[in-house]
């Protein structure tokens, strides 16, 4: 489906989080476990408010990966929301569950650690994310532009499902505004 | 630990008793190591899923299956060492209250497969008290094999998640799961009616 065609389908909310929500819905992704992040707050709030979605917090990111993996095997699609530091806890579950069992794990990562980060630890852990993804040859995209978000998210979700392979969509501060120092 | 009156049972025996009760194509998720080795040894079923890594995720994976298929009972078998890695999952399950999820913890207080080292919880923590404190009110120790079977029957007729803890001996698993993750996953999906075989 062309972008121009998609834009006529009544997507009124052109915020980044509105586009993510509508893209999830259009791809019948209804189970959304997450570990929260400040930047993701409007998305999480709107997902909770929409009865199409089952949205809930988990104690750890790998727990959320386990849940959506089980759900997919049971015939229901899900996606996990997290922050950069949460992604850093996932190498084992990616290498021992999602990749070898060929599970189309869909992850949205709010990117901290770059473009104005104020916490040194965040900037360091951010540097581990892409090397981990690349070491497992996993598909990932860093989304910086609002006009590219829907195309990248929609196509990536469809590719994950049809190729039974994980995909990580990294939501860059250029897209979301990021988190800035705030006393 | 309030487990003084519970009999020390055997994982393979308890697993076999559970499998013997399953008549409705119930799903069973086997946690890593001996837990899924004994599930395999008890006789492969199309509705069995065997984990080959990601220690601690048997309950989260089972929760996902339970949320996807609310009409099917879903069992998860997990070792005490594995559960200690993911105690937060108990609260997640308590908050979501899936009616069809039954968790079984095989507690021998050791990491049997790595050389029988005691877990940090051995002798100090009570799995059932942890589960109850995490919000899973329907949690109990099985006193013996007969009591285990009774608790399974009860869990299969209740409308809330259940956790059954079993004290087991230090014996290794009886079989060894064939380590073919794609086949395990695909056959499980056939068993759950999600896909037809090619």
Give the arrangement of secondary structure elements.
The complex is a heterodimer of chains A (183) and B (198).
Chain A: H1 3-6, H2 16-26, E1 29-34, H3 41-49, E2 54-57, H4 61-73, E3 77-78, E4 80-83, H5 84-87, H6 91-98, E5 106-110, H7 120-135, E6 139-143, H8 146-163, E7 167-171, H9 173-176
Parallel strand pairs in A: 1-2, 1-3, 4-5, 5-7, 6-7
Helix pairs in contact in A: 2-3, 2-8
Chain B: H1 11-21, E1 27-30, H2 34-41, E2 48-50, H3 58-68, E3 74-79, H4 80-84, H5 88-96, E4 101-107, E5 110-111, E6 117-118, H6 127-133, E7 139-141, H7 145-156, E8 162-167, H8 181-191
Parallel strand pairs in B: 1-2, 1-3, 3-4, 4-8, 7-8
Antiparallel strand pairs in B: 5-6
Helix pairs in contact in B: 1-2, 1-7
- Proportion of helical residues of chain B: 25-40%
Q: Which series of helices and strands of chain A comes N to C?
A: HHEHEHEEHHEHEHEH
| Overall average residue pLDDT of chain B | 96
Q: How far do the termini of chain A sit from each other?
A: 45 Å
| First-last Cα distance of chain B | 51 Å
User: What's the count of strands of chain A?
Assistant: 7
Number of helices of chain B: 8
Strand content of chain A: 15-25%
**Main interface: chain pair and counts:** A-B, 33 and 39 residues
Q: How would you state the average pLDDT of chain A, rounded?
A: 93
> What value does the Rg of chain A take, in angstroms?
15 Å
What is the multimeric organization of the chains shown? heterodimer
Largest sheet of chain B: 6 strands, parallel
Helices and strands of chain A: which structural class? alpha/beta
Quick gist of this model?
The complex is a heterodimer of chains A (183) and B (198). With 183 residues, chain A is an alpha/beta fold. Chain A has helices spanning 3-6, 16-26, 41-49, 61-73, 84-87, 91-98, 120-135, 146-163, 173-176, and strands at 29-34, 54-57, 77-78, 80-83, 106-110, 139-143, 167-171.
